[in-house]
């Protein structure tokens, strides 16, 4: 089964193509300027070309549904729906944090905690079992302070994501490992996507919305 994966929830604009569990091609770039609007469809073309298949060969589309950048998620969701409607294929949506923990499962950590930078001292986070990837606490918006994640003081815990930098500065967890250079990536959506296809967990495209977690807050321009 040929599947197209889109992940646009962060600074990493990421597209991948797989044939079942086999990754055929991934095309992605981390940019401080959030390049989804200008790069996503180009990356789709490149990924398909790299995989050696045509868009008409795609049999399902999988989307990293967030949480993360409001604008990035809007772009990814609109594109995913467009491909699904045009190709008449199902839409699968996976929590973007699942793709952040995937590369580190089985690396001898008790827990893996994604931290997506929100604003000020806030992060989007969840807690996963470091071995199985099972979600142990639901995704939430959390204000970091010195007492955050105290329950992991004597555990082997890995914090991943661009929110790990500010967490490292404030958390009093000397044995924790922090990796701030981890972003959601389309190539790590494969396993969860195949599980959802197996269980026929498809999205209703008429009602599907990304996992924004919080309402959008625009910035008002000051009157000159």
Automatic annotation (TrEMBL):
Highest taxon, organism lineage: Bacteria
Pfam family, any one: TsaD
Domain Gcp-like: 37-190
Xref: Gene3D superfamilies: 3.30.420.40
CDD domains assigned: ASKHA_NBD_TsaB
PANTHER family: TRNA N6-ADENOSINE THREONYLCARBAMOYLTRANSFERASE (PTHR11735), TRNA THREONYLCARBAMOYLADENOSINE BIOSYNTHESIS PROTEIN TSAB (PTHR11735:SF11)
The protein's name in its UniProt record: tRNA threonylcarbamoyladenosine biosynthesis protein TsaB
Native source species: Chryseobacterium sediminis
Lineage: Bacteria, Pseudomonadati, Bacteroidota, Flavobacteriia, Flavobacteriales
């Amino acid at each position: 089964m040929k599947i197209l994966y889109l992940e646009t929830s962060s600074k990493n604009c990421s597209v991948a193509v797989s044939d079942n569990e086999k990754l055929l091609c991934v095309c992605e770039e981390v940019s401080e300027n959030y390049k989804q609007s200008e790069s996503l469809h180009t990356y789709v073309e490149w990924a398909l070309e790299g995989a050696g298949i045509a868009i008409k060969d795609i049999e399902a589309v999988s989307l990293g549904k967030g949480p993360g950048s409001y604008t990035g998620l809007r772009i990814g969701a609109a594109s995913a729906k467009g491909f699904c409607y045009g190709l008449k294929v199902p839409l699968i949506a996976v929590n973007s944090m699942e793709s952040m923990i995937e590369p580190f499962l089985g690396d001898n950590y008790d827990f893996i905690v994604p931290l997506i930078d929100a604003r000020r001292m806030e992060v989007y986070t969840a807690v996963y079992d470091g071995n199985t990837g099972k979600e142990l606490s639901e995704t939430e918006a959390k204000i970091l302070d010195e007492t955050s994640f105290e329950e992991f003081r004597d555990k082997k815990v890995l914090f991943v994501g661009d929110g790990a930098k500010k967490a490292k500065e404030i958390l009093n967890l000397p044995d924790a490992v922090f990796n701030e250079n981890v972003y959601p990536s389309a190539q790590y959506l494969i396993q969860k996507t195949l599980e959802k296809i197996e269980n026929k967990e498809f999205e209703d495209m008429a009602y599907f919305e990304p996992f924004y977690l919080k309402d959008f807050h625009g910035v008002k321009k000051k009157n000159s």
